[in-house]
Known about the structure:
Elements: H1 4-9, E1 17-20, E2 24-28, E3 36-42, H2 58-73, E4 80-83, E5 99-103
Antiparallel strand pairs: 1-2, 2-3, 3-5, 4-5
Amino acid sequence: MTCIFWHIVAHELPAEILCEDNDLVIFKDINPAAPIHFLIVPKKHIDSINGLDEKNAGIVSKMVLAAKRMAEQHGVQSGYRLMINTGREAGQVVYHLHMHFMGGWGRKPVIR
């Protein structure tokens, strides 16, 4: 498979992974559009929202709950954005379902 996210999920390409479980990998976006910007990516390859059906639609709930946990961990529960692009016309560039988490505006950076 040539999908870049598939290679990151398989640990074949480097990424700054923040969290991983049996279903998801969360890593920093290499071209951030916000002070805190990471991607929540299912391990199972699904091209986009259009590739969901009754059998795999639960992954979106897992992605949203993971975003909520990450917001708490990063101290941005009071303001963050979740975005899923579906299709080229909506700006989807990588055809592997993924959710952008963007936040941290107006927040003092935490140095780690």
